[in-house]
């Protein structure tokens, strides 16, 4: 992909109501000679480049012939010219992760002049030290585990000793490939400038990077978050792993303590469990996955113990004592004090927004007690010239949320949009084996909002796909509004749960009821059928139905 040198324009288009409308307008403009056409039906706007010899009237006529009403045509370079004459950039982004790139791409497509400040490696957490490397290793270790523990008669397999160094090397190759293709390569494609160095605000409308003072019409803070280190006596002195450094290990620790048992702790803890480590999960909450539905979390904790892990919850590490043969954790629980001997400690108690040293106070940007940038529903900060997106805002820390917020912030700040953040039906996935995926509200959250709810908890043994897989260890839980039957939340513990949950997201966002979900066709012998079956349990005993019974 390369950007054309042809002048870029925006055309207001009325009458568009869906993605198909946008496609029709894009085809009409392309047929009339426009290039690099991007149409946003929600904004009612088309953006494109117009080569020499392509004139306005044929473009308008093409849009009209397609059944839509063309409006004002503007040269998108006008905004860039304004930036050049008054400020260094239209948009200056601090950070280079998912929120930052989503924002920069949308701004560049709108003809705006974009700068990006990055003091470290381009690409942020997800591609470098988060989602991509962790899931690559999780898949490798899951394959290793299944080879030695599958349930099928007559299919002998074996698993040799793992070579973690080879796994890490392959993972690093994938990270480098994706960083190049999805981040570094896009800088030139979209034509924005990367400024290397630490950025610090020196006033409400300027950012200092090394020897440069940069100005912009709008700033976007998208600096992400970093692992929290709890104030445990002796932890710093004894040393510990984080989600970043754990992915760099080339040897498997014999005994590993995981402090924290939400998504990151569970994923990495099970990863090393599958590699042969003796793993102990420790959490101050009453169970692993404390933010998820209690029935599902309890089952996941049981599964980890069946695989050989220890789970201490609720329990608190009060001290780490280092010695010549390893480390000893003093752990307090309801049963009293226990000493846990380990070789390595993985800290996974959460992530803190990266705002220290940004000079936000000089920019008039307020932060909360956690250091997170405070934003309104449009992602504006207390300084109307500064927006923020992604993990740095202290909201849900998912890469897809960050990207969504990045493009939304730019639209609101510079492209005439007026959109609020909408996370209804937000999905979340913990990539354990089996996966834990959920969307929308838990039962407790719905009741806390004053809703009357009906719930169902269905064992995975009711799903034919699980029976065929000979893995019925999971559950499906649905939360619905009493009376209306509107689906409010769903949680799935099963193989491929992260793929299954997408259907629940759509159902929640569009107000679908459990009776409508139960009546919807789901393909047989897929795990997705579990949603249909669980919805049926509100009114029927699925154990008394034949396979595929409607």
Folded structure, characterized:
There is one protein chain. The protein is α/β, with parallel strands linked by helices and about 550 residues long. It is about 35% helix and about 25% strand. It has 4 domains: about 10-75, 2-Layer Sandwich (Alpha-Beta Plaits); about 85-125 and about 170-225 and about 350-415, FAD/NAD(P)-binding domain; about 235-350, FAD/NAD(P)-binding domain (3-Layer(bba) Sandwich), CATH 3.50.50; about 425-545, FAD/NAD-linked reductase, C-terminal dimerisation domain (Enolase-like, domain 1), CATH 3.30.390. It is built from 16 helices and 25 strands. Helix 4 (about 100-110) packs parallel to helix 11 (about 400-415). Strands 5, 6, 7, 8, 9, 10 and 20 form a 7-stranded mixed beta sheet that branches.
Describe this structure in a few short sentences.
With 550 residues, the chain is of the alpha/beta class. Helices cover 33% and strands 26% of the residues.
Question: Strand content of the residues, in percent?
Answer: 25-35%
The major pleated sheet works out as: 7 strands, mixed
Q: What's the average pLDDT?
A: 93
By CATH reckoning, the class of the largest domain would read Alpha Beta
CA-CA gap between termini: 48 Å
Number of helices: 16
């Amino acid at each position: 992909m390369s950007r054309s040198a042809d002048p870029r324009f925006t055309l207001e288009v009325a009458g568009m109501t869906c993605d198909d409308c946008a496609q029709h307008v894009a085809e009409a403009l392309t047929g009339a000679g426009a290039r690099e056409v991007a149409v946003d039906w929600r904004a009612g706007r088309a953006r494109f480049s117009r080569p020499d010899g392509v004139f306005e009237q044929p473009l308008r006529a093409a849009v009209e012939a397609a059944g839509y009403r063309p409006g004002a045509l503007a040269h998108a370079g006008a905004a860039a010219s304004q930036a050049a004459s008054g400020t260094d950039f239209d948009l200056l982004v601090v950070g280079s992760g998912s929120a930052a790139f989503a924002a920069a791409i949308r701004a560049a497509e709108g003809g705006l002049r974009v700068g990006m400040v990055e003091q470290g490696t381009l690409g942020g957490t997800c591609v470098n030290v988060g989602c991509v490397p962790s899931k690559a290793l999780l898949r490798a270790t899951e394959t290793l585990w299944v080879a030695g523990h599958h349930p099928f008669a007559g299919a002998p397999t074996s698993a040799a000793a793992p070579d973690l160094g080879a796994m890490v090397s392959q993972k690093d190759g994938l990270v480098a490939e994706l960083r190049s293709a999805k981040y570094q390569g896009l800088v030139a494609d979209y034509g924005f400038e990367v400024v290397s160095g630490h950025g610090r605000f020196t006033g409400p409308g300027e950012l200092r990077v090394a020897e440069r003072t940069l100005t912009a019409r709008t700033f976007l803070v998208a600096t992400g978050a970093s692992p929290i280190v709890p104030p445990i006596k002796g932890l710093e002195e004894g040393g510990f792993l984080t989600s970043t450094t754990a992915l760099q290990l080339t040897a498997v620790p014999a005994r590993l303590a995981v402090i924290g048992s939400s998504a990151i702790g569970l994923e990495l803890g099970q990863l090393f469990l599958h590699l042969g480590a003796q793993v102990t999960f420790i959490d101050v909450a009453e169970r692993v996955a404390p933010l998820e539905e209690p029935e599902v979390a309890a089952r996941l904790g049981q599964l980890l113990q069946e695989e050989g892990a220890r789970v201490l919850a609720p329990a608190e590490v009060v001290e780490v004592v280092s010695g010549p043969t390893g480390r000893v954790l003093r752990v307090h629980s309801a049963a009293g004090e226990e000493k846990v001997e380990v070789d390595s400690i993985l800290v996974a108690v959460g992530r803190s927004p990266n705002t220290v040293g940004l000079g936000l106070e000089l920019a008039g940007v307020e932060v909360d007690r956690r250091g997170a940038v405070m934003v309104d529903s449009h992602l504006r900060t207390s300084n109307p010239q500064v927006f923020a997106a992604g993990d740095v805002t202290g909201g849900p820390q998912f890469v897809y949320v960050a990207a969504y917020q990045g493009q939304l912030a730019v639209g609101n700040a510079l492209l005439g949009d007026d959109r609020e953040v909408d996370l209804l039906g937000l999905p979340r996935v913990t990539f354990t084996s089996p996966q834990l995926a959920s969307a929308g509200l838990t039962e407790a959250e719905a009741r806390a909002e004053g809703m009357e709810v009906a719930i169902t908890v269905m064992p995975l043994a009711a799903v034919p796909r699980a029976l065929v897989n000979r893995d019925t260890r999971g559950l499906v839980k649905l939360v619905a509004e009493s009376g209306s039957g509107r689906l409010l939340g769903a949680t799935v513990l099963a193989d491929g749960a992260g793929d299954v949950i997408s259907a629940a997201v759509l159902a929640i966002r569009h107000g679908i009821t459990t009776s409508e979900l139960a009546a919807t066709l789901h393909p047989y012998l897929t795990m997705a059928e579990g949603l249909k079956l669980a919805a049926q349990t509100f009114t029927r005993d699925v154990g008394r139905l034949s396979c595929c019974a409607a």
